[in-house]
Each structure stands twice: as C-alpha cells, then as structure tokens.
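Hi D.,

Good news: the full-assembly prediction came through. Inputs first.
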Amino acid sequence: MKHEIFETNVIVLALAIVVTISIGGLVQIVPLYTMEQTFEKVEGMRPYSPLEQAGRNIYIREGCYTCHSQQIRPFRDEVERYGHYSLAAESMYDHPFQWGSKRTGPDLARVGGKYSNAWHAEHMIDPRAVVPESVMPHYPFLAEKELNFDDASAHLKTLAMVGVPYSEEQIAKAVEDFTVQAQGEDGEGDVDAFLARYPKAAIGDFDGNPEKITELDALISYLQMLGTLVDFTKFKPELARR
Amino acid sequence: MAQVEKDALTGTDTTGHEWDGIKELNTPLPKWWIYTFYACILWAVGYWIAYPAWPTLSGYTKGVLGYSSRGDLDNQMKMVAESRSGWMGKFEAASVEDIAKDKELLTYAMAGGKFIFNENCAPCHGSGGQGAKGYPVLADDDWIWGGKLADIEQTVRLGARGIHEDTRISDMPKYGKDELLETAEIKAVADYVMSLSGQGQASDDGKVIFEENCAACHGEDGKGLQEVGGPNLTDGIWLYDGSAEGVLAQINNPKHGVMPSWEGRLDNASIKQVTVYVHSLGGGM
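Then the structure:
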C-alpha cells in the first residue's frame, strides 16, 4: 500500500497537504491578479471619502451586513427591483467587501440617492416611524455619539498600504475633508476642492443636527453614496460578460 | 511488509496494516458508489468543455456553449422588453394624459404604478399615499407642487430639492435664525397663520407682515402657490407641525422636505405609470 508513508509519517503528511492545497489555491487565486476580466473597466470609481469610510466602519461595527447584502446579482427579479447588477469594480476599494449573504432587509448596493438624508436619519433612529411593519433594530445612539476623527489620516494611510490609491493630498487633508463634507455649503471649508478629490460625494449636514458631527452623519454619508459612482451610461455590458 | 490475510471472524481481507496488534479490515466502498463517483468526474469534464471553467493566466476558458450569466440576463431582459414592447412603446409615446384616458393603458399603468409605488415611494409617503409628518399626503387634493397629471409627473421626474439639476426648489427664508423679522413680528405673523385655518385671533400687524413677507410664496390669501411650492396654510392640512409652536418653529428656522429625483433611477414608462397611479390616489386637481 503506497500511502503507508503518509499514514505513518506526520511531517510527510503535513507537507503533502500543503502542496495539495497550494495547487488548488494557486489555480483559483493567481489568475485573479493577472486576468483582464477581474475588474470591469468603468468610469467613476474613487476611494471612499474619510467621512464615508468612517460610516462604513460603523456599518461593519453594527453588523448591518447580517441583514443587508450589497450585491445585486445578475437575475431579472433583482435587476428590476434594485437596479443594475453590481460590478466587481464597484467593490474594488472595499476592505473588507460587504456583499453579505443574508437579506432580512433589502439589498443596499444602490440605495444611494433613493431617500433623503432626513428619511435616513428618521429611519435609523426609529425604523417604525417611517416603515410601520419594519423589523429593523433602531440605532438612536448613533445620532448622539460624536465622531472622533483625529485619526482619519491614519485610516486612509492604512488603506493605502493594502492598495487603495489614496493620494498624498487626500491623506494630508483627511481631517479637514471630514468637516468639509459634514458641513457642506454651510461650513467654512472649500467644498469645490473636496468634490474634486471625491467626485459625486453627498455633502451637508446629514442627521439634521448641524451642531456636531455624529456617527449618524458618517453612516448616512456612506449610505448616500452606495452604488452611485459608476457612470453606467459609459458602461459596455458586452465587455463585462462572465 | 504489508501482509494481507483473511480475518477469521468476518472472512474479510485485512489491509495488512497492523498497529500494536490491531489489524484493519479492508472493506471497499460499494460498487454503486464508486461508479457514481466516476460518473460525476466524467460529468465534470463535460462541464469544463461546455461551460466557462478553468482560469488561464490572462483569462479563462469560455466553454463551447459560450454561456455567461450576465449575457444570459441581457438576453432575458431583451426578451422581456420585447414581450412588453407593445405596451412599453405605447407608454413611451403617450403622454400621461393620454394614458389616463385610454382604458387599457390605464389598467396596465395602475397595476404597474402600484408595484412601483410600494417599492420606491411607500417608505416616505406611506403604502396608500397617506403621508407622514414631513411627507405630504398624496391621497388628498391638497398639492404643494400641483396635482394635475403633468405637475405630478414633473415632481416625480425632477424631485423637490433633489439631485436633478432642474429639481423643483423653493427655500423659505430663516426669519428668526437669520434675524429677518423681530421676535414680536414673528409671533404676530404666526398668530395670523394660525387664524388662517380658523385657530385663534390675529392682529392687523400679522396680516401686513404676511402680505409683505410671505405672500410671494404662500399667496395673498395664504392658499399657497404651486409654482413656487408654497403650501396652502388655510386648509388645516400640515406638512409639519400645525400647532402654534410648530408654526413658530417653521418661521424661525424652516424645515424643507427633500423628494428624491426619479429620472434616471426609474425609466420613462415607470415614471408615467406611477404618476397615473398617484393621480388616482388623490383624485387629482
């Protein structure tokens, strides 16, 4: 019996396991880095603004992904309900991605622009105030908790280390961009310069309380940009078939 | 070294492995299982040939059937569009007024419009258009921006204070916060506004202040001006808080509702269907 050597020698067995798994891994993973089709060629994708990124962190912290997916699959019923199917390119700067696997609530991949900031604020504070039959938990504390964003630059720098193309300027201005986005036209900041760094970002006071920048501001700024970046008028589906 | 022998008790061969005197029986998998397993392997090979399967360094094997899930969706959507094209073409060509007059189109629009409304509009306007604080009732004939079919279509398309570049917009000045009026003047005009809907008495001052400051948007008589989205203040139907404090707060530092712009998010035919549906809720005006 040829496999006696594996059965009687634990080191040989371990090595054989490593070799076998590596082959499987290499065949599946390496081509993703070399294949042209991994990311569709699209226009409009940009890294998250510091405020959106903070909102994203809250989304992950609160476990919104346990009830919400962010992935519209290429099926008729999903496309007719939620809009264009999600592209790989749309989660290209996600660390980690929020595709999710459970839909207790609706998919959020294209929720950006669907509702007003005021609606989101009401809905997060008390979902049943606007959707009486909702089973979503309420998150009123987000509206009270002031956001600490001294470390915004460090966040962007860390993301840059794993490949998100933040520019030096974006990293340097991270703390400033926080306030510019959350105060919008009512603030002192240079909104145009901010929008040049982060095109299409929603600006302004999000949670209805301009006095302070809360976790709710960040979360809503994130929700309002979901699925809005890619310019689908310039997208050629024939080139992104798979 | 391996010594295969027959186990005396069961009559089965051993594998010849022996650990501390314990011998292992050789009980092979049943034949049906083995052949099913081989058949699955063969099936997999067939699958590799027929469907996209193996990654290569610059792409992947496309498979002889040329299948792709996104391509499949494209084809399916084309078929759907074709089967609907008769209807959709009519919706594309017809104005909302034509749709409302054509019995067949109307039936179709009402069914489609109801579905679109529940998915997109109900979270704000309520499932029957009954509204909520800050979100206008669509099931009455009190309209901020107009209740004719064309007005409704316009509001849905462009939104109010939405992201469309031609969105309907009208911002009430912050009379208190920006100190445009004195506290006493604000009180007087608030009393006047209350009196418009038959609540309490107002001074003449209030009326004058109203005519000078508010009539441009709410009309001389306070019955609203749909061109500038100034709501009717006389009918006792309130978008916000209709109590004396609520009206004061609105004059001091007004709230402004945002109605999203739906052009681009919903296609033309859907916008027309939902318009006809909404019009039917309010009886139109």
